[in-house]
Design a protein that fits this description.
Elements lengths: L2 H4 L9 E4 L2 E3 L12 E3 L8 E4 L6 H8 L4 E4 L9 H8 L3 E4 L12 E4 L2 E5 L2 E5 L8 E5 L4 E5 L3 E4 L2 E3 L9 H14 L7 E4 L12 E2 L1 H7 L2 H4 L6
Parallel strand pairs: 4-5, 5-6, 6-7, 11-14
Antiparallel strand pairs: 1-2, 2-3, 3-4, 8-9, 9-10, 10-11, 12-13, 14-15
């Protein structure tokens, strides 16, 4: 048993199902109250996906250990959390944009990517720098969900947008990433946004609907003058 595995864990509470095949974990203090998601596999011969790390506690670990197979996708440095502890317990590979792989010394089975990659048909990653150098988004074409990490944050019920903070890497690249994202997405996709930020502004909701229309309506010229919050 490693030193990490020997550390005690809190009881915690398990994730809640928000849609068929989709689960939301409780906010994680280790990632500044960020949100993590579990996407069930689309077929029996495929793996489920843990998007960003939830709190490392007994309830979350028990839920994930019940899954037949899985992989971890990190959408940016804010979602790393206690990645090494999860990986030691689960043995799953980790997909991370190559510019942030160095932040995970000692982690095993790191799979880096550059511009974009496809994990399996209909499940694609795109590099979207801005919030951090290695920010990425994950599109699940079925059921039409964009896991956008901190690229888009909830602003109000049914609303989300880029939220510049003093920790943001590069605002200009962030806006260019949003423009590139719109061109990269298939027509009509996505139907929903699943943010990796805190979801309090959604007032109890988990997902942001009408996601494609929301993305298309972003005024990037106006956003260019936004000041850090």
């Amino acid at each position: 048993m490693s030193w990490l595995q020997a550390q005690p864990t809190a009881a915690g509470r398990p994730p809640r199902q928000v849609q068929e095949g989709l689960w939301l974990f409780a906010p994680n203090r280790d990632t500044q109250g960020g949100s993590s998601w579990w996407l069930e596999p689309s077929a029996a011969d495929r793996s489920g996906v843990l998007i960003d790390c939830p709190a490392f506690n007994d309830a979350n670990l028990a839920f994930l250990q019940q899954q037949p197979a899985g992989r971890i996708v990190l959408t940016g440095r804010e979602g790393h959390g206690r990645l090494r502890r999860f990986q030691e317990a689960l043995g799953w590979p980790v997909h991370v944009q190559e510019q942030e792989a160095y932040l995970l010394p000692g982690a095993q089975q790191l799979i880096g990517f550059a511009e974009q990659t496809e994990l399996e048909p209909g499940l694609r990653l795109l590099w979207t720098p801005g919030p951090s150098p290695g920010t990425a988004v994950l599109l699940a074409e079925q059921p039409g969900i964009l896991f956008c990490g901190r690229l888009l944050s909830p602003l109000a019920p049914g609303q989300a947008g880029p939220l510049r903070t003093r920790r943001s890497f590069h605002w200009g690249r962030w806006l260019r990433s949003l423009d590139r994202l719109r061109a990269w997405l298939p027509p009509g996709q996505p139907h929903w946004l699943a943010s990796g930020a805190g979801l309090g502004a959604l007032r109890g909701e988990a997902l942001v609907p009408s996601a494609r229309a929301l993305l298309d309506q972003l005024d990037l010229d106006a956003l260019a003058t936004q000041q850090p919050v």
